[in-house]
Amino acid sequence: MLAAVGIPSAIRVDGPVFLLEVEDAQLHLALSELGHYEAESRPAPALPVPPPAPLHPHAWLGCLIYVAVLLGVAYAIGNGLIRLDAFDLGELNAERVQSGQWWRAWTANLGAGVWFGYLAARALGSGSAWFFIVNGAALANWLEARIGPATHRSVGASTAVFTALGMLAAHSWRTRFHIPQRWALRWAPLVAGVVLLGWLGSAGEGTDLVAHATGFTVGVLIGAAAALPPIEHILGRVPQWLAGLAALVSIALPWAFALLN
Prior knowledge:
Layout: E1 9-14, E2 17-22, H1 27-41, H2 59-78, H3 86-90, E3 92-93, H4 94-98, H5 104-107, H6 114-124, H7 126-147, E4 153-154, H8 158-175, H9 183-200, H10 209-226, H11 229-237, H12 240-260
């Protein structure tokens, strides 16, 4: 290093010790250059380990209600307790949504995936998570029906599944955004969410790619917004049972419109 800056020097071995020798006239300059080199070569301090994210209890409760709703609806239709044409009444029919049958945006996505729903409930609370999943998927359905062709038809919970995935990825990203960390770790939740969207959301014949992408996008917006301190504060004041009840009403009310029309 000293030779690179034009300072003559020599290294002498004295037993187990290596001695660096320079001329007296170059001593202060050599010490200064060595000090600069040491400061520049010092490794950067390690980033602090991010604290674990707070998790909400009773996440399984929303999943249990989800399963009960699915089984209950299937049993009621199969045994003639409600109208047997419920599938036709509840499917996402773009032409009918555009003509004013708004409830089809909700009835086309009665449930969501238990696994993503459970993880989202651990992050946001069981009631809040399922309220956002149900209504976020409905919003994605409505957007798809409004901007898509009138001949479009779809039914199922896949839009809600990817709404939950997008919400979970964005919420995890946004809540830890302020923590000092490498860029790869900072953006890892969103990158992982996009990878899962491509992996799970594009396989199989007849896959509704637009619904999956729209659901994921709406979920990302909801998850990022829910992690903002003012909104997080408001959500923290809403009892989870009340948010869960609102989620059930969000399902029951559109189905009531569908069955009565």
